[in-house]
Amino acid sequence: MRDDIRAVLRGQRIETPSWAYGNSGTRFKVFAQQGVPRDPYEKLADAAQVHAFTGVAPAVALHIPWDRVDDYAGLARYAAGLGVEIGAINSNVFQDDDYRLGSVTNPDPAVRRKALGHLLECVDIMDATGSATLKLWFSDGTNYPGQDDIRARQDRLAEALAAVYARLGDGQRLLLEYKLFEPAFYLTDVPDWGTAYAHCLKLGDKARVVVDTGHHAPGTNIEFIVAFLLREGRLGGFDFNSRFYADDDLMVGAADPFQLFRIMYEVVRGGGLGPHVAFMLDQCHNIEPKIAGQIRSVMNVQEATAKALLVDVGALAAAQAAGDVLGANAVLMDAYDTDVRPLLAEVRAEMGLDPDPMAAYARSGYFEKIRADRVGGTQAGWGA
Ligand code: PSV
Ligand code: MN
Ligand code: MN
């Protein structure tokens, strides 16, 4: 197997979310699990396990205020001591009563000021932790036609984004996330990549779009969006997860591994495998064990990446140029149909890791230890 592919796989970097380690659920029920973290420090410790067994998950995204601490610089030092670092800072302007009619698009200027204050606080936390990325997802929208003025809400959104953008320091950037619907059902203020892209273009080069794979209508060609944004230099990253019906937040690559491969092929094709694109997981493990669920997810992304790297680009280009429809499709499918698990096992061995992260984690006894040590773990924030 080519050395350059192995090198890329060794250097891959996948960020796990702090909220994946705490209890989560649906609006019907949060199922408490044993051994879940009681505070942000324990979430980092769990994330460090995912990195220890995969070697490619060195960063952990925080969610504020779910991960609020007194000393953020201390939290970053604690992370470093565990062998991980703080990744994206995720804002939360969707869980206060004040945000019933929206946050930065709320018709009430006082609520807008409060929301903006939180977003700016998140940049302070980036300064303290050394995080380079602010990830913004807004639940803002309306439930009924006529409820509020669509254009005015866009103006308010643009105003808030501009204020946040102006606060970003050198080396910091803002990722704007879109979502088709939910919790608003009639209108969502950032419903699609086009809206996010347009706002980012206005803001400047430090503003990029983040693609959450669960945030599209069924059948959406997500790889087209990825190809387009990469081509325009505006793909900031991914929130990876799987969906069957809505924003299911299931393990990435579980529902549709072929889609994940197609996305990763466009990433490779567009030169997106690098630090300028953040590969984040945005998942909740409602019924499955959390650390193992994250390890499995990281492995799923690795497998899709390996297959994407295996595409014979020369043969593909030749078939495409010749108008050989079946030949071109066969080149892509050959890569997808390759069993890359032996290759990844070898790559892990080269990194000094166990070739089977799931088994190695199970053998480690970490879960038994946290189950005994931690009593009364907290919810991730969802379903609270
Ligand atoms: C809500 O849909 C959501 O899943 C968004 O995707 C955010 O990225 C995430 O929550 C964390 O706020
Ligand atoms: Mn997301
Ligand atoms: Mn989501």
Describe, in plain words, how this protein is organized in 3D.
This protein is α/β, with parallel strands linked by helices and 384 residues long. The protein has a single domain (3-373), classed as TIM Barrel (Alpha-Beta Barrel), CATH 3.20.20. Helix content is 45%, strand content 11%. It has 14 helices and ten strands. The strands form two sheets. The chain has an eight-stranded parallel sheet with strand order 1-2-3-4-6-8-9-10. Strands 5-7 form a two-stranded antiparallel sheet. Strand 8 (207-212), helix 7 and strand 9 (235-240) form a beta-alpha-beta unit. The longest helix has 21 residues, at 109-129. The termini are far apart. It binds alpha-D-psicofuranose and manganese (II) ion (2 copies). One manganese (II) ion binds next to loops.
